[in-house]
Amino acid sequence: MSQAVPVLAVRDLAVTIGRRAVVDGVGFDIAAGETMALVGESGCGKSLTALALLRLLPGAAKFAGGSVDFEGADLMRIDEDAMRRVRGNRASIIFQDPLSSLDPLMTVGDQLVEGIRAHREIGRTEARGQALAMLKAVGISEPERRLAQYPFELSGGMCQRIMIAIALAARPAVLIADEPTTALDVTIQAQILDLMKGLLRELGTSILLITHDMGVVAEMADRVAVMYAGRIVERGPAEAIFASPRHPYTALLLKSVPRLDDVPKSAMAVIEGSVPAQDDWPPGCRFAPRCPLAEARCHAEQPPEEAVGAGRGVACWRHADVAAGKLPA
Fold this sequence. Notes:
With 329 residues, the chain is α/β, with parallel strands linked by helices. It has 13 helices and twelve strands. The chain has helices spanning 46-53, 80-86, 98-101, 108-119, 124-137, 143-147, 156-168, 186-203, 214-220, 238-243, 248-255, 296-300, 319-323, and strands at 6-17, 20-31, 35-39, 61-70, 73-74, 91-94, 174-178, 206-211, 223-228, 231-237, 306-309, 312-314. Helix 4 (108-119) crosses helix 5. The longest helix is centred in the middle third of the chain and has 18 residues, at 186-203.
């Protein structure tokens, strides 16, 4: 957990689909001005965690317990009117699928202006000026013309930048970014990451960055929480996690990232198998069926989170062996 006073504090968050908890007791803090990355493979529950924080869960998913404390209120328990004043204003989200998130029947300008005016007592002309400024800030070419266009007239990458502009328009205290650069080429990705870092510096905005891209994590994050099969299995400062992972899953994720300084070239690590479905979670450590260090205890008992250094925690019976470099190459 962060040592600073958190602007967002998540405790024992649980989300169910049917009778199964797909987000299972997740907790973390984010301090003011901090970027925390929530990382893991697809299917680990990262996006559902993000949606739960702003009460945007899809119909089949239900909030099943825990708390999300933000600016003196538990977002899981305030009424919907109060939640609307938070959502898109003090806390915003960048969705990973812009084409399904933008209204196809509204122009880009109308969507930006509507979002700005929903939280600011300003006229349409002033709101349009702010909308234009945001399009310029996220690198949209010909921003005046784009305001009059519809999402279907734009590329997927451009729609993603527009989603980012909408999320940043109200200058939120917390920005949840769910795979914000997935649809963008490398050049635009760098621009967007620089934009997000600039917002953090300017306003002290906190960012929850949800990604599977460890390169983006290295570029952006102050702290990292590694998620697997609905639970956080390791957390800590980004520098420490990259230098010395303590969970086999974290170590294998890092080994699977190609490195330019890897000379002579060596084969990238492969994590055998896949994330189990929520109706087929094993009884002990959920990573045990894929873990090269797993022993009988790992398959039978769920490991608790254990402190392993300043601000660091890991849920693994074999974490000392990982630290000692005993993970097979």
